[in-house]
Write a structure and sequence with these properties.
It is a multi-pass membrane protein. It comes from Cryptotermes secundus. Keywords: Membrane, Transmembrane, Transmembrane helix. The radius of gyration is 22 Å and the shape is globular. The longest helix has 29 residues. It is mostly helical. The protein has one domain: Up-down Bundle (Growth Hormone, Chain: A), CATH 1.20.1250.
């Protein structure tokens, strides 16, 4: 109930020049919350009930501040026919689209190209986000650190991962005012692939708990560096951008329904990825019970291959939304084919046709 309105509201009320930065703030808030819980967990290792109780203060504060401070978005007012309450009365695009949506019906509206195309793209993006291991690393951070053979205290490293993820997310929010979603996503996918494959190869050559891993402190810094790089790579794209684009890619006539379906599927994907992880670990040669002596390179190979497939998916299907109005994004889905070509990608950045052909 919080995930959809936050992204949609920001996309609807923000100026186009700032939208790229502002739509990432819900993800930054998630990263900040993860870091807070990591810190509480480091100090209150045996008292998860107190951690949960302290965490309950945040949604209470959010609910009160939302009720008191936030007005309704102009597009929502238009969708309810309350155009007298909004300053978008002179803008024909949103009104015509919303009127068409009311006449067509929301379920039938999902069959329109400007609805089903972003539905496919975003659901695919969220699928790869979850099964490339991003949230597995978040939720199983302590176990992952032990399985990766990091020699530092696992709770200290967990807090360090949280700090790096938050700082990288803040950096990305400013970078997205200048950079497109596609190049950031591609860079993220490539980085995640390299880090997971590198970690798998390292564990195959230097098994966790082996004499080489225990005796050489400098050698054991390699998995720490790869994990930190993986978190940064995820933060610049796959961890942040799917939630940001949730408010950008759906047209007003199906934004609520399509956004709800995508968020529901995203959390189902998350549930499946998190619950499968212990069984995947055992299937691929790891030990979920004793992670300190577990050799789990198979799991990291799995996430590396999935990250590679995720990169290919982004290259083929992800539509650029940078420096485009919500109406332009909707029109692009209506007119262009689903699969992105190199020429169209070049066109998004104003590259000459001759250079694109070359």
């Amino acid at each position: 109930m919080a995930s959809i309105p936050a992204c949609v509201y920001i996309a609807e009320v923000s100026d186009q020049s700032l939208r790229g930065m502002l739509v990432t703030w819900p993800s930054i808030g998630i990263s900040a919350g993860i870091l807070v819980v990591y810190i509480l967990g480091a100090f209150l290792k045996d008292n998860w009930r107190l951690v949960a109780g302290l965490s309950a203060a945040f949604p209470i504060l959010t609910a009160v501040s939302t009720l008191v401070l936030l007005p309704e978005s102009p597009l929502w007012l238009l969708s309810k026919g309350r155009d007298r309450d909004t300053e978008l009365r002179a803008v024909p695009g949103p009104q015509e689209a919303l009127q068409a949506g009311r006449q067509l019906g929301k379920l039938r509206a999902l069959t329109l190209p400007q609805a089903w195309k972003p539905l496919f793209v975003l659901n695919g993006y969220f699928f790869f986000q979850q099964f490339s291991g991003i949230y597995v690393v978040v939720y199983y951070a302590v176990d992952i650190i032990l399985q990766a053979g990091v020699s530092m205290d696992e709770y200290v490293v967990t807090v360090l991962l949280g700090v790096v993820q938050l700082v990288a997310g803040i950096g990305v929010s400013f970078a997205l005012t200048r950079c497109g979603r596609r190049p950031m996503s591609l860079l993220s996918g490539v980085g995640m692939t390299v880090c997971m494959m590198g970690l798998a190869v390292y564990l195959q050559l230097v098994p966790n708990g082996s004499q080489a891993a225990l005796s050489n402190r400098e050698l054991s810094s390699i998995p720490l560096g790869l994990l930190l790089a993986y978190v940064v790579a995820g933060a610049i794209g796959f961890h942040t951008l799917p939630w940001a684009m949730l408010g950008e890619m759906y047209p007003p006539l199906v934004k609520g329904l399509a956004g709800g379906l995508t968020t529901c599927l995203a959390y189902l994907f998350s549930f499946a990825a998190l619950k499968i992880y212990p069984y995947l670990l055992m299937l691929l040669g790891g030990d979920a019970v004793n992670p300190k002596t577990s050799t789990s390179e198979g799991v990291f190979y799995f996430y590396g291959v999935t990250s590679l497939l995720a990169t290919a998916f982004v290259l083929l299907f992800l539509t650029e939304t940078h420096r485009k109005s919500l109406q332009q994004i909707e029109q692009e889905f209506l007119e262009r084919p689903l699969t992105r070509s190199v020429a169209l990608w070049c066109g998004d950045y104003g590259t000459s046709a001759e250079l694109c052909r070359n």
